[in-house]
Amino acid sequence: MPRLRPSIFFVSGPSASATASRPCLHSLTLSSSRRSISTARHPPFAVLETCPEPTCPCRSAPKLDLEIDRKQNLNGSMSPYAQHLIVSTGQSDWTSRIEDEHDNGTSWGQVVGDFKSLLGRHGEFHDPFNNILINTSSFTPSSEPEPRHSRDLVEGVDALIFPAFRRFRHLAPLARGREATTKSTVLTSPAGAGSGGLKDFVRGYLLPEPDRLHPIYKDIPEHERAAKIRDATAASNFHSWPIVNPTILICSHHQRDSRCGTLGPLLHEEFRRYINQRKPDEQGRKLVTPQSPGNFIASENDGPTGSEPGVQGSILESLGQSLIDTTLSSFSNTNASATSSMQAHVNVGMISHVGGHKWAGNVIVYIPPTFTTFHGTTSNHQHPSSDMSHASGVPPPHPLRGMGIWYGRVEPRHIEGIIEQTVMSGKVIGELFRGGINAYGEILRL
User: Fold this and answer.
1) Which residue, 52, 162, 193, 412, could crosslink 58 as a Cys pair with Cβ 3.0–4.6 Å?
2) Residue 39: which pLDDT band, with cuts at 50, 70 and 90?
3) 335 contact partners, CB below 8 Å, separation of at least 6
4) Do residues 289 and 11 make contact, with C-beta atoms less than 8 angstroms apart?
5) Burial of 259 (0-12, 13-18, 19+ CB in 10 A)
6) 3-state secondary structure of 85
7) Which family does it belong to (predicted)?
């Protein structure tokens, strides 16, 4: 297994190594008949044109019923979105349209259908310029029992939001009615204020921040504008947990397309195998996956921190002193003896259709804003802030912190490269790159 590699930060100018990285040039606007979402001018990451060959044995790609499109350039093939909402279901395949799960008898099926109804075309919160990507996942809902304040409390649903990097529990379906969602509020709000239902959740976490509302709405009446932007009061009805561990999502939606349905579970198994067999670095720090394939570990403590309205818009602005204070929280010191190692969990899950089945396997890598690079030596292209990190004994911030990186045409032979180059070193693999999103909701292109 390979040793941990030092990170290489993108440096523009003649001093940057042409063989290791190249500038990432982005257009300033994104042409789309459906929406217009800004793109980052100069995303701070290095690019490897091709994925390095694996240094350890890996499984071969399976034979597929349908062919993979290997001719089209993947760059720009990711549909723009503002936030990614993921509902935990505990299963790896779903009906072709996940909104059709609404009547499957489960709480998560109702919640998915309700979110689609609220945010989809003709929905109460539909905004073509604020696209919310909604997926189901193989992560199992929390097994932690809910507080019991009433015999009539309903079973809730777990959800994740990226790039806000928040985890939520006990969301109740709209179909339960006003009375049920009010009782559910006791589970999510310390003060028990408001309804705590899905509409409040949309208002509090999925609508755009005031400064991110599309300019087309600049002349609408103030009350209409207020209905289109995020409401901190609604957000206060919910507790959330910060996600400080990397998350890898793989499309496995067989009932939508057999290519992802075949490749997805294989990639899921291989990612977990590679991560868990990977050797610790020179300082004894190691990547691990949750013990159960369906488990999701938001942080090593995985405890509530209360709601933080507006975290998406300020996520990078808070990476100064707070990074020094909290960055090591992404590692867990088992500390039972001198031989105990530091661990960073990597969540690996399967999700429903994200678009582009002809480019299966589709993989999304989300790097938390507080995640750091493992390092042994200082790179010649180290970001200046990393020197301070070394001097203070704090690992340098990750070049892809707060970002989501989309890859397509991923095979088992690419897994080592994705872990070593993207998760560990903060470099994007150009031949696989479909697009990405940063902490501000800006779309990333090459």
Assistant:
1) 412
2) low
3) none
4) no
5) buried
6) strand
7) Belongs to the AIM32 family.
Amino acid at 187: L
Distance CA(207)–CA(410), nearest Å, equals: 32
Confirm if 187 and 150 have CB atoms less than 8 A apart: no
- Peptide bond connecting 163 to the previous residue in cis, omega within 30 degrees of 0: yes
Band of residue 43 on the pLDDT scale cut at 50, 70, 90: low
- 190-230 pLDDT per residue, tens: 323 334 699 999 999 999 999 999 999 999 999 999 999 99
Higher pLDDT, 53 or 193: 53
Say how far apart CA 156 and CA 188 lie, in whole Å: 10
In terms of Cβ atoms closer than 10 Å to its own Cβ (0-12, 13-18, 19+), residue 148 is exposed
Query: 203, 231 in Cβ contact below 8 A?
Result: yes
Report the chain's mean pLDDT, rounded to a whole number.
78
At residue 249, the 3 state secondary structure works out as strand
Among the residue ranges 134-148, 191-205, 239-253, 307-321, the one predicted with the least confidence is 307-321
Q: Quick one: which of 327, 324, 332 has its CA closest to 302? A: 332
Tokens found for residue 229: 């932007």
SS3 content of the chain, % helix, strand, coil (to 5): 25, 15, 55
d(CA 24, CA 40): 10
> Which is more confident, 333 or 396?
396
Which helix (H) or strand (E) segment is 135 a member of? strand 132-137
Contact between 324 and 272 (Cβ < 8 Å):
no
Q: What is the mean pLDDT of residues 220-245?
A: 95
Burial 130-144 (b: 16+ CB within 10 A, else e): bbbbbbbbbbbbbee
For the chain, give the percent of residues with pLDDT over 90. Answer: 59
Following CA atoms 121, 438, 134, 191 in sequence, which dihedral angle do they give, to the nearest 10 degrees? Answer: -100
Residue 21 near residue 46, CB atoms below 8 Å: yes
Condensed to tens digits (0 to 9), the pLDDT of residues 311-322 reads 433 344 444 334
* β-pair partners for 241: 167
Three-class SS state of 308: coil
Tokens (6 digits) for 426: 């903060």
Phi, psi of 121 (to 5 degrees): -55, 135
Distance CA 276, CA 290 (A): 10
- pTM over 0.90? The answer is no
Nearest to 306 by CA among 193, 396, 230, 216: 193
